[in-house]
Specification:
The protein is an alpha+beta fold and 275 residues long. The chain contains 7 helices and 13 strands. The longest helix has 29 residues. About 4% of the residues have low confidence.
């Protein structure tokens, strides 16, 4: 004798919110459940591997796509449950089967697919004024964690690396000198191998509460950058603790390249590429 059971829209919504497609399975829609579940996996893997998050508008598009999917699937399950009201019981319409699927999904995502579905980016909050006017205190930026060592550092890159005096903290500075180059600063002008460096990013950066131990001398160097090292400076030269004070930075220590500002107090700066 066939058995029929009532479907609850709220239960369908919650199940599909916990595991995409599970609400559709609860409604007896096996094929639709499988389609939506694997569509979700495809979206996540695509967003993680496509490099979409390496640009501000790509990130916005990716988040909009994810949010749209996360809203559509449970709402679709809820509406269908309300429309069907009752369904013919299938073998998989058992509470323990739903729990097994939730546990399997958690295992699949957290243990097996995590390295493939988490974008190689991190958020970083600018703590000080050393990169003014490029970056202001409180700016939040996206950093590409996998840029190095897949790419060689270039002059002008804004990079993240551990604070030499406290590795639990990170610094953000600009690459100025590359391995083998001779760096000299005369009257606050940087010279690379005897030639002046044009720096478009130095634009009226104020020295806020300048510390005397950070104050730059009118002359620095010349010094030659060793192999495997970088010479880094803050854009706010009068208020930056950088290679003039703690020396060269190991290329191997770089944690990533800063890409763009995703949040700032001055909303006009949101989305700005860091260059």
């Amino acid at each position: 004798m066939e058995e029929f059971i009532k479907r609850d829209p709220l239960t369908a919504f919650v199940l599909s919110f916990l595991t995409p497609g599970l609400g559709q399975l609860y409604n007896g829609q096996l094929k639709r459940a499988a389609l939506l579940y694997f569509l979700g996996l495809f979206i996540v893997i695509f967003l993680s591997s496509s490099g979409l998050f390496f640009s501000f508008y790509g990130m916005v598009s990716g988040l909009a796509m994810t949010l749209g999917y996360m809203l559509f699937v449970p709402i679709d399950a809820s509406i269908t449950a309300r429309r069907l009201h009752i369904i013919r019981v299938k073998r998989y319409n058992r509470w323990y089967f739903y729990i097994l699927i939730i546990l399997f999904n958690a295992f699949l995502i957290n243990l097996l697919l995590e390295p493939f579905i988490i974008p190689p980016i991190k958020a970083y909050k600018v703590p000080a004024a050393s990169m003014t006017s490029t970056l202001m205190i409180g700016d939040r930026v996206i950093v590409n964690k996998k840029y190095y060592p897949n790419n060689s550092p270039k002059r002008g890159d804004v990079v993240i690396f551990p604070d030499p005096s406290d590795p639990s903290k990170d610094f953000i500075k600009r690459v100025i000198g590359l391995p083998g180059e001779t760096i000299e600063i005369l009257a606050k002008k940087v010279y690379i191998n005897g030639r002046p460096l044009e720096e478009h990013y130095i634009v009226g950066a104020p020295g806020r509460g300048l510390r005397t131990d950070m104050a730059p001398s009118k002359k620095f160097g010349p010094v030659t950058v060793p192999s495997g090292k970088l010479f880094v400076l803050g854009d706010n030269r009068d208020n930056s603790l950088d290679s003039r004070h703690f020396g060269f930075v190991d290329i191997a220590a770089l944690k990533g390249k800063a890409l763009y500002i995703y949040w700032a107090k001055d909303t006009r700066r949101i989305g700005n590429t860091i260059k």
